[in-house]
Membrane protein
Amino acid sequence: MIINSLYALFCSLGFGILFNIHGKKLFFAAFGGGIGWYFYLLSDKYTHSIVFSLFIASLVISIYSEIIARIFKAPVTIFLVAALLPLVPGAGMYYTMYQSIIGNATKSLSLGIETIFSAGAIAIATMLVSSITKVILAIKKKFTS
């Protein structure tokens, strides 16, 4: 699990370089990818559900990104996008299209639905954390002003 998490860290590092993230921010963006993949594998080990595991990993990455963004006073997307990339269901999209092309409609539909649910789990987790953070910051601002 640790080795796979390091691979995800390097994947996020590469995309961080591609996205022109500099200095310490690059390391922390890449570290988010490693943490997310670790939680994905950990959740998958106990639940055996890809969609739920992606949801948990995306929650962890989103919370991590919100915290690190506040520390660095930087946009959350700097850390979030690079860290979420290892979780993107690219293989699911590929195999959905592959099964469709070879004429296996049943398998294509099954893989397509799982891929859509996987992408939806990532989006919902990210949106949930972002919304809760905005509410918390609004309440904090209301009581401190």
User: Anything to note?
Assistant: The radius of gyration is 17 Å.
